[in-house]
């Protein structure tokens, strides 16, 4: 263990087992998170941030909500480190903005991602889902992650940005460099490559606008002016980060649950309308994302001195499985109606939450309508990739044709 900052008590320092950027066959939701919930409400994770950097980890849902809402003492600017990693200072919009600047950009974007607007995409999303399911539904098996959980939401992202489906693998390669490796040089090269690609796409839309999200961003206003080129790019970078990984992770985790819990699978077959509530409980039970805040001013929490500049890991897997907030959190109860933290909380609540819910619901409806009861291939140990976005690396499903 590297030398600890002098405000970190040695007995509160530990490796954080949810974000090592490695795969394991240990189920984090049943075997790791419950153990963490028995520990202190705040501790220092020695390797929570890419590059094996340390930061505070807060596990209680109540405390996470307070930090989410406290924009005076905890800020987001620069919290991902992507711009700084290539020696620049642009913001990921609206993710890395703080009030009051954040408010104007968020107000401009909310109508673009409203429930009504996202609902209008249902037909296109459903066609994409059926397109991928049709490729394997008669085969009796598939690698669900490779054949559906990854390409389905990424194809929607490409459609929304007006980008060619043929670019999917390149985008996924860059995404791996940004989010799934501790090699900082890979992260730098990936950031530069994504920036160059998006700037080129923005220039193309400026010349020949369409109805895609890049073209829409070029027309948005804040404080009575059009967004600057850097601001449009910052928003497109945010769409890239949000569109390629989080929904894929959620779909894979949710179908891992259904494949290993046939009673729940059959319950949803008998009552398809129950998918809406079921998805909220699955989002809680399998919350996947850890984001970060940076402490703005020295502040005490549970007798711990969090110093200005310290990173704080906002672990939704911990907060959404907090036994003080949810009775028997490791139990999946489709009638629970949870107020979970999967999409965050407060002013920075996930901009794409409405679209994510539509994608998850349509994926569940179409899969259960197209396939008979499915299960994980016998003898296969499902690998969970532990990082700031937890996901299953592979999920071979089988069913009787």
UniProtKB/TrEMBL annotation:
InterPro entries reported for this sequence: Cyt_P450, Cyt_P450_B, Cyt_P450_CS, Cyt_P450_sf
Keywords noted in UniProt: Heme, Iron, Metal-binding, Monooxygenase, Oxidoreductase
Superkingdom of origin organism: Bacteria
Family named by the database record: Belongs to the cytochrome P450 family.
Keyword Iron: yes
Source organism of the structure: Sphingobium baderi
GO molecular function, one term: oxidoreductase activity, acting on paired donors, with incorporation or reduction of molecular oxygen
Keyword Metal-binding applies: yes
Name of the featured protein: Cytochrome
